[in-house]
Amino acid sequence: MDHPALTLYVGRLHEGTPRLGFVVSKKVAGKAHDRNRVKRRLRAICLPLLPRLGSCDLILVVRTPALALAFTELQVAAVQLFQQAGVLRDSDSQEGHDER
Question: Which structural domain range is residue 16 located in?
């Protein structure tokens, strides 16, 4: 799945929780603190979504436009990619959800 700021690769399905990986190359952000900042933001975006993500391997590759995005814009981009890939379940259809 593709977005101007991010690319999502979806790997094989497996048992258990989803596994996430973030790739920020030196070509995208030359300084380590810039690369780390983007990865911290993506972790903060993905952590609350983990219960809604399917059990698969997900790799988010960061592109240069992501460095200029605000947190909410980066969040919208990531959620859109997860939805396009079909790995983001609705919040009311979570496993173990009990309506009693």
Answer: 6-89
Element (H, E) at 34: helix 32-46
CB 30 within 8 A of CB 83: no
Whole-prediction pTM = 0.84
How many other C-beta atoms can be found within 10 angstroms of the C-beta atom of residue 63?
16
Say how many domains are in the chain.
Answer: 1
Handedness of CA 93, 8, 81, 6 (dihedral sign): positive
d(CA 14, CA 38): 27
- The answer to whether position 62 is within a domain reads yes
Cβ–Cβ contacts within 10 Å for residue 66, how many?
23
Quick: pLDDT tens for 25-82: 999 999 999 999 999 999 999 999 999 988 899 999 999 999 999 999 999 999 999 9
